[in-house]
Write a structure and sequence with these properties.
Chain lengths: 205, 205
């Protein structure tokens, strides 16, 4: 048995395990599951993930794992995508939590309102959008400062911390974020896209 | 050199590494740092953590680590607090990300408005509070369902997943959450509080 991933193709969170599994050379089955049509709120899906979210990964033995960054850690254990150095691994943990707490709730949510939800651009309030942009730019400034110190988020090499942060940063423009003032971040996006086995958001197994 | 933890005493996020370091028998120095008086926005503090948040952990070699759940993972590596079983460790990752994305932004934020910020109860809007309660109760339902399957979040034993979720669940009442309908969660809170080396939110080294 291979892995099975329940995922929505346009979601950055769902893209993370797709990209890593491709880079690891792991075959997997993709089950399209759209959060916008109620597919994550069915009895059947809630039995797989009681938190009602994608991505949801079914392991080869049938056991289940939720949370995109937990999938990255699990799949990367024992591979070069999780640093062997203890401090670099700790920084990898740090940036994974930063991504979910200080980055995704602003940049991914702005993108969802402005580019994914039908009618979203017309219905999001100016106040809400200003909050999302303030939080997203705060995250981008923290990322830019980190990239002044090191070429990759965990330090010396490409890791799952870069995958997690790439997922929504590379489509931040779809949330009306302008990366012109973030040259190190733009260079890093190019370096991530140039990694062996890199595939884009639209890629399917 | 010991570890140094920059922390705000009332913060559940800051409580997590304090509790784990006590259970691990690690001596550490505590530097009180209050997010409400600007202490996390000084030039000096931003040099330690550019994201301007506590907790911030300085390791014995002087290197720094941010994000409470990253500290838990780093400190627990190679100890019984991070499961040795690969799937239980994956679940541990899962619940750490669940805590930061689906639990803390609701339960901790409601508690902050209602019990920590001076005048917060009078100034939080009814709509905002309803959103926080809806999200918090959604997280509590997911937790209660998990505790029908297993005694601990990662499975068979107490782990850092329990520490992370205990931090704000045990003070959810300060955010006006009522745990009466969550008997397994209330039993689990008692089991966590009964663990060897457990100390409460007020404990200081």
């Amino acid at each position: 048995m291979n892995h099975t991933l329940y995922a929505m193709q346009s979601s950055g969170n769902c893209y993370k395990p797709r990209l890593l599994m491709h880079q690891l050379g792991l075959d997997f089955r993709l089950v399209d599951t759209d959060t916008r049509d109620g597919s994550t709120r069915t009895i059947e899906f809630l039995a797989l993930n009681p938190n009602g979210k994608v991505p949801l990964l079914v392991l080869p033995d049938g056991r289940r794992l939720a949370e995109s960054n937990a999938m990255l850690l699990h799949l990367a254990e024992g591979t070069p995508y999780l640093p062997a150095d203890r401090y670099e691994r700790a920084l990898c943990y740090q940036w994974l939590f930063f991504e979910q707490y200080s980055h995704e709730p602003y940049i991914a949510v702005a993108r969802s309102w402005l580019s994914l939800q039908p009618g979203g651009r017309a219905s999001v309030s100016a106040e809400r959008l200003a909050d999302l942009h303030a939080g997203g730019y705060r995250a981008l400034r923290v990322m830019e400062a980190r990239l002044e110190e090191a070429p990759w988020f965990a330090g010396s090499a490409y890791s799952i911390a870069d995958i997690a942060l790439f997922a929504y940063t590379h489509v931040a423009g779809e949330g009306d974020f302008d990366l012109a003032a973030y040259p190190r971040t733009r260079d890093w996006l190019q370096r991530v896209a140039g990694q062996p086995g890199h595939v884009g958001l639209d890629w399917r197994p």
